[in-house]
Amino acid sequence: MSDFVSINDTIPYPPGEWDRPLGNNGAGALENYIQRKKYKDVPYFLLLPQPLDSWYDKNYFGRVDPVQNGIVVKKGGDFGSLLRQVKTTRGDVFVLNFVELAFRELKQHMATAVAAGAVANEGSFYSDVSPSAGFYDYDKDAQDFKEVLRRSYSVRLKKNPVKFKKVVDFKSYVEYLLDFYDTKQAPGPITLSGYTVSPLSTPLMSGMVIDLVPEDFSKDIIKVTKYMKDPNFRYFARAARKYGFYIDRNAPWRLFADPLSVPMLYYINQLFLGTTISVNKDSFFNFYYEKTYRLDLTRLQEDLVYMYNKFVQQNPVIKEDWHDLQSIPSYRRCSTLNPLKTYRQATTVEAVQNMGDIYWLDTYFKFRVKEGDLNFRDYDIRFKKAVEIYKVYGVEKAMRFINNEVKPYLYNSDALRKDLTHVSTRGNIA
Questions:
Q1: Which of 14, 62, 357, 427 could form a disulfide with 133 if both were Cys (CB 3.0 to 4.6 A apart)?
Q2: Could you tell me which residues are beta bridge partners of residue 61?
Q3: CATH: 3.40.50, 1.20.120, 3.30.1380, 1.25.40. Which one for 53-136+202-281?
């Protein structure tokens, strides 16, 4: 505790003020700026291992690889072996297998320290920690958001009778959805890559994060008075780093595994003793994760087909006057029942895939640009290059090129940073 008190000598805040940051979402803009700045500036981890700053620095730790590709934990095949359950009385909590092993040993270390009298036994949150949340399967959130996007787009179409009538098939549905993104009113990204590096996603999807308690991210004073001033906090922070964990500076009840640290690499390879598997710094991300751009196209096709078919189901008939009908292909008119009606037709994933790779590369590229709110005035030149790569190397290399064109513009933390809010059901900063 003495080194914590010595903070008084290192910051321009008087005693009794630096340890009471009052930033919260209910405060006024100016006051909140002052208080958030205080929490940012005060060296609460003085003489401690460096924490992970999930708000101002490592925004997407565990959701991007070292070259900033969006990543998700691999599913299928080895998926079951990659995740392991952490023993807890709070329900099922899973993390990547090596994270569970490291946490188990950290927990045992703290128990030994308590038994030896090295740390406080009572009145400390950190004397006996237990996870409240671990790996979160992003698919549920992604599916829920798809519904939000679908409904939002449908409402917009119904408010514009001209566009509503022009949506007569899958292709026109996608065309006007792209226009919807141009309005800046679309609720968020449509691709998995866009979702992964957006505020909609959660670091828990990485499998490398453990929340020790569900807590309010928006109130800075709780972080200091309840956790950083805990009698065992500074001991725990040093112990956590010894076992390969970072403490989240923005949430001192959250642990991030540092997968390329010496301790974590040791635990990883302990798991595969006696096998031919060897995981190192160079192979870690390829072993545990899938690059999202490799999954994007199939998911996008499936999601768009679902959205379109739902639109058709809810809006099967377009009533037309005679002049409007002239622009509708004759095969879409129901002449035997009513010559002044045209019917939308549902489609299938197989049917839209037959629209061709060039169409889908163009559609995918445009969605990535628009969902990222980017302005590529030379889009045609960039897409022409993507087509050239496709013709020589195939779809996957073209997708990689598109991803590389977009990703340098997606990690401006200032652009993505919003006021902290309450903890969501995912344990994420919403």
A1: 427
A2: 64
A3: 3.30.1380
